[in-house]
Amino acid sequence: MSTEPHSSSQTHHAETAEGMDDIQPETPEQVMQAAISRIAELEAEASDMRDRWMRAEAETANVRARARRDVDEARQYAVQKFATDVVEGADNLRRGLDSLPPQTADEPAIVTRLREGFEGVERSFIGLLERNGIKKSDPTGALFDPNLHQAMSEQPSAEHRPGTVLQAWTSAWTLNGRLLRPAMVVVAASPEADIRNLDETA
Fold first, then answer.
1. What secondary structure letter does DSSP report for 171?
2. What b-and-e string marks burial along 25-39, b requiring 16 or more CB atoms within 10 Å of the CB?
3. Of 25, 81, 88, 112, which shows the fewest CB atoms inside 10 Å?
């Protein structure tokens, strides 16, 4: 009666031993290769994380730089509308001075004092504007610049290079380098071009 269980136990141990015989232990070379592969995977993951971190840092730095630039520009140009109105007043003061009669040796003293007083006020006013980043420029004699000038008319001239500003009806005004008001100018044109235009019209 006891022989059957004994036979079953022997069969189980025999199968287990046979299965263990099928599992071959890893060789040192296989262990080394597995370790190298794992190290390569970890290095790739670390490199990817480092690249992501560097991109995130660069983007953060760009955001900070843009924010500083926006704040600086907002601070510099917050008064742009006010500055535009102020330069209109400066131009009106210059028009008033230009409307005075030409100075003569026998002009009344009151007129001389009036002119000198207005000129002093204009100098002080212009100096005040310049200290606050508002600058005036007279383009007469310079080449036409569409970024600063507005051409009101052309005048043929054999004495000036085409595109030269012959006359400025108003000055150009800038705020910290940004255009507030363009100068209204008369620009030199080639006399030959004017002759060709006349011939074509005829």
1. -
2. eeeeeeeeeeeeeee
3. 25
Examine the domain organization and report whether 101 and 58 are in the same domain.
Answer: no
pLDDT tens figures, 70-113: 887 777 777 888 898 899 999 989 888 888 888 888 888 888 88
CATH of the domain at 131: 2.30.22.10
Give φ, ψ of 96 to 5 degrees: -60, -40
| SS3 state at 137 | strand
Of the candidates 131, 42, 41, which has an alpha carbon nearest to the alpha carbon of residue 83? Answer: 131
Q: Residue 27: what pLDDT?
A: 84
Q: Is residue 20 part of a domain?
A: no
Domain boundary among 78, 103, 120: 78
- Structural domain of 197: 79-201
123 CB-side CA count, 13 A: 6
